[in-house]
Amino acid sequence: MQTMSIPVARRIALAAQGFADPRPESAPTRRHLRRVLSRVQLLQLDSVNVAVRAHYMPLFSRLGAYESSLVDDAAWSHSTKRPRLLVEAWAHEASLLPMEDWPLLRSGAKRMGWWTNYAHILEKTPALVDDIVAVVKEQGPIGAGGIERALASDSVTRAPGSWWERSEVKKACEWLFGMGQLTTGTRRSFERLYDLTERVVPPEILAKRVSAEEGARELITRSALALGVATETDLRDYYRLGPQVSHQAVAELVEAGVLEPVGVDGWRNQAYRHVDARTPRAITGRALLCPFDPLIWERARTERLFDFFYRIEIYVPEPKRVHGYYVFPFLLDGELVARVDLKADRAAGVLRVQGAFAEPEADHARVASELAAELRVMAGWLGLDGVAVGKRGDLAGTLVRLVL
Fold first, then answer.
1. Residue 164 pLDDT > 80
2. What DSSP string describes 18-81?
3. How far apart (Å, rounded) are the C-alpha atoms in residues 84 and 79?
4. Which residues are within 8 A (CB) of 361 and not within 5 positions of it... i.e. 6 or more apart?
């Protein structure tokens, strides 16, 4: 069995995630979006908007400045000339993923999620689901608040036993979303507007049936393409599969020659390399990574690959935070060399660097220079006038001079 060093595994992982691809010289197009998706496979959604929403940032990290409508149109609009490319579903977490992957997520390979905790609502008010589906069918795409108002106005005509509390409507909608009966028709200021799945997913995709075993093999294959080299646990986590189907899928893909068992120096567990994974001689370039970038979202793997201990500190009380509220690791020439706590202050028109910290072995002067340049690009992409640097962190003093 082949054994590789950490630097080799790191280059494989970065190439798999698209960081060996050059940024386009002209304005990114749907072709570039497809290329990034062929690497990362999905874009995680998150409601935090302190700097930029999570599903926009991975494309900026790989492509540079682009029009956000590139993602919006692919995810939430449809026309004959430009069909919808992406659909929302629970994958790693709530995610945007290629429309053709929908049957894989409905195959039974994925673990059932937190929304199953809402099943008791359906037992208490069994007519609620039918009521919600009827409203969505008539008025969708529609938000949970709109559904509540529609149900309230129709309360006289509804059948006995279908009374509900307002909070229960949202929970029932999320249960229907998790089970695949509803999906996101579009979004309004990031509010999810529910629609019937059959009005969003094309009929030929909706009709496709995939067994749990085939679904697991296909999803593990996509995980392996996105990760390059990974343990079974890493592969399973990418789409949050169940352990039993994941173990079986990995074994079958090894037998089929899709995955190659390898050792990685310092890793305690068996690793697997996708047979098509590239091993570039070097990774060059720079990128700011949001906390939900697929390169780093599995924190234990991030530590194994980059010797970079990283935790999101949103839920840590401010006095106990080490680096800040919403911290972006900074990738430079294949290494995670710094971290910056960022906030888009739209009222003031600046990208605020609330803290900037170099990793122990980093070249401070070069890191600060490259980081300043990338921060200016990010500020322009967000429509902000400039960058404002605070006092926290050992890079702050140098950055202040460089961003002026």
1. no
2. TTTSPPPSS---HHHHHHHHHHH--EE-----SSS-TTTHHHHHHH-S--THHHHHHHH---SS
3. 7
4. none
